[in-house]
Amino acid sequence: MKKVALITGSKGGIGSAISSQLVNDGFRVIATYSTGKHESAAEWFAEKGFKEDQVRLFELDVTNAEECAERLCTLVQEEGTIDVLVNNAGITRDGQFKKMTAQAWRNVIDTNLNSLFNVTQPLFGAMCEKGNGRIINISSVNGQKGQFGQTNYSAAKAGMIGFSKALAFEGAKSGVTVNVVAPGYTGTPMVEQMKPEVLEAIKSQIPMKRLATPQEIAESVSFLASDAGAYITGSTLSVNGGLHMH
């Protein structure tokens, strides 16, 4: 039986790389997509060349606690188990705090932080009962060091780290590990569409003078999901080229 990994935000630059990596690692991947976005999810599935036994597309509104509880409980019954959960769903609504709207604040907190509760809570008990599970939360260097114009995003990404440390305590005795991968600036299609001068300015601040590749983030997740990562819990793996050392 293949192990099963559920990935939120699976279609983005980092999410796509994680999905492909875990398929290559032999997992059956449950790839979530936003409500009403089946067509673009199906296009992504075809573009990546996935097969039905490798990847299952799964519609889920990660901001809706009731829907997550209901749909994920059904999913566990259908799949038999969820061995690995990767919380990767995230959005940005950047703006200086003095001009930030309550809506921009709420949207980012709902998608990036409240989704952690909504998606993890229905799955955590079953993992503990089974005596095995891996939860990997994708934070950001900006949750560690802060970033101008990103109070909402930085708050959410920092919150993910605190959540992971606390949940790691609760899962440890049951064989469930909880860890964070905190990427720095990563060469996703979205980032690479930035103006060349902006990209160069970003790279100049990074000691390694380059962006991470999505594959480098995916391989960090792969390591934490593997047998080699079994004794690591409550940790944050910073993959940022030395941009923020602490």
Report on the structure:
The chain is an alpha/beta fold and 246 residues long. It has one domain: NAD(P)-binding Rossmann-like Domain (Rossmann fold). It is built from nine helices and seven strands, in the order E-H-E-H-E-H-E-H-E-H-H-E-H-H-H-E. Helix 1 (13-24) crosses helix 9 (214-225), helix 3 (65-79) packs parallel to helix 4 and helix 4 (102-130) packs parallel to helix 6 (151-172). It is globular. The model has no long low-confidence stretch (mean pLDDT 95).
- Oligomer status: single chain
Mean pLDDT: 95
Distance between the termini: 41 Å
The portion of residues forming beta strands comes to 15-25%
Question: How many structural domains in the coordinates?
Answer: 1
Quickly name the level 1 CATH class: Alpha Beta
What does the largest sheet look like? 7 strands, parallel
Number of strands: 7
Strand order of the largest sheet: 3-2-1-4-5-6-7
Topology-level CATH name: Rossmann fold
